TrEMBL record:
The active site is at 138 (proton donor/acceptor), 166 (schiff-base intermediate with substrate). Pyruvate binds at residues 51, 207. This is 4-hydroxy-tetrahydrodipicolinate synthase. GO terms for biological process: diaminopimelate biosynthetic process; lysine biosynthetic process via diaminopimelate. The record marks 50, 112 as: Part of a proton relay during catalysis. The gene is dapA. Its main location: cytoplasm. The keyword Oxidoreductase does not apply. Keywords: Amino-acid biosynthesis, Cytoplasm, Diaminopimelate biosynthesis, Lyase, Lysine biosynthesis, Schiff base.
Length: 294
C-alpha cells in the first residue's frame, strides 16, 4: 500500500495529454477537467510521459503540472514520468517529486546513447535508489533507440522499488522474455491495440493513449481483455485504436479531443504539430465507433 493506494488494483493507467491554450501555454483549467474525467473512470494517471509531451516542456512547466494535479487530490494514484539522457538531472527530478504526494514513477530508458545491459542496469538502479515510490520501467525502443536488455531486468528484479514494466516494443516475444526473466514483475502493455494479446500472455494491465479520448470505454476494454471472455475484442477495437497512431502520438488523440470539445486547442509543442494530421475522417469514425461500443 502506498498512500492508501494498492497500485496493482489499477489495471489501466492513462498517459495523460498536456493541454495547451491557443497561445501554446499549459491550460490548467482543462487539465483539471481531464484529471476529473480519469478519476471518474477510476483510471490511474501518468503525467509527463511521451503522450504528455513531457520532454518538450520546461522544468518549471513540468513542476507546475505535477504540483497542480497533486493539489487536486484525485481519488486515483499518480505516476510521474522520468525521461531524458542526463542521469544527474533525472535523479534531481526524482528527488524533487519525492516531496510531492505522488505514488509511482515511470522510468524511461536513456535517450539517444543506446547503452547496453551494464549501462542500463546502472541507469535504472541509480533512479530506483533515488525513488521513494514504486517504479515502472519503460521499454520503448521506438523512442529511446534501444530495448531494455533482458539481463538488465534480471539484474534489477529484486530491487525493492521495482514494481512493474511497461512493454511498448509491440513484440510479444519480448514481452514473454521479460516475463520469464522476472516472473514476479508486473508487466503492462504499452500498446493499446495489443492489450487482448498481452492479457493472454499474462499482462496485468495497460498504459494507454486511447483512454484520453475514451476514459470509461477503455477501462471496460481492459477489464474485458483481462477476463479473457471476449474473443472479438481485437476486431472491435483495433481499427479505432490504430487511427490514433496514423502519425506520431499524441497528434491524433489531441486532434480528436479537440473535435470532442474537450481540448480548447489541438496545439502541440514543436517539433510535433497537429498540421501533420491531414486526414481526420479515420479518427471521427473511430470516435463514433467507440462511443457506441457496449
Amino acid at each position: 500500500m502506498i498512500n492508501n493506494f494498492n497500485l496493482d488494483d489499477y489495471a489501466l493507467w492513462t498517459a495523460l495529454v498536456t493541454p495547451f491554450d491557443q497561445q501554446g501555454n499549459v491550460d490548467y483549467d482543462t487539465l483539471t477537467t481531464l484529471v476529473s474525467e480519469q478519476e471518474a473512470a477510476q483510471n490511474g494517471i501518468l503525467l509527463l510521459g511521451s503522450t504528455g509531451e513531457g520532454l518538450a516542456l520546461t522544468l518549471k512547466e513540468q513542476q507546475a503540472i505535477v504540483e497542480h494535479v497533486c493539489q487536486l487530490k484525485p481519488s486515483v494514484p499518480l505516476m510521474v514520468a522520468v525521461g531524458g539522457s542526463n542521469l544527474a538531472q533525472q535523479k534531481e527530478w526524482v528527488s524533487y517529486c519525492n516531496q510531492l504526494p505522488i505514488h509511482s514513477y515511470l522510468l524511461g530508458s536513456p535517450l539517444y546513447a543506446k547503452p547496453g545491459a551494464v549501462g542500463q542496469t546502472h541507469w535504472y538502479e541509480s533512479l530506483l535508489n533515488e525513488s521513494a515510490h514504486p517504479c515502472m520501467l519503460y521499454n520503448v525502443p521506438g523512442r529511446s533507440g534501444v530495448s531494455i536488455p533482458v539481463q538488465t531486468i534480471e539484474n534489477l528484479q529484486a530491487h525493492p522499488k521495482l514494481w512493474a514494466l511497461k512493454e511498448a516494443s509491440g513484440n510479444i516475444t519480448q514481452f514473454e522474455a521479460y516475463r520469464q526473466a522476472a516472473p514476479n514483475l508486473a508487466l503492462y502493455s504499452g500498446d493499446d491495440a495489443l492489450m487482448p494479446y498481452f492479457a493472454q500472455a499474462g499482462a496485468k494491465g495497460l498504459v494507454s493513449v486511447a483512454a484520453n479520448a475514451w476514459p470509461k470505454q477503455t477501462h471496460e476494454f481492459v477489464k474485458r481483455s483481462l477476463s479473457g471472455q471476449h474473443p472479438n475484442l481485437f476486431a472491435q477495437w483495433t481499427r479505432a485504436i490504430n487511427s490514433l497512431f496514423t502519425v506520431a502520438n499524441p497528434i491524433p488523440v489531441k486532434v480528436l479531443m479537440h473535435q470532442q470539445g474537450r481540448l480548447s486547442s489541438p496545439l502541440l509543442r514543436p517539433p510535433l504539430t497537429h498540421l501533420e494530421l491531414t486526414q481526420t475522417d479515420c479518427i471521427t469514425t473511430a470516435n463514433d465507433t467507440i462511443l457506441s461500443w457496449h
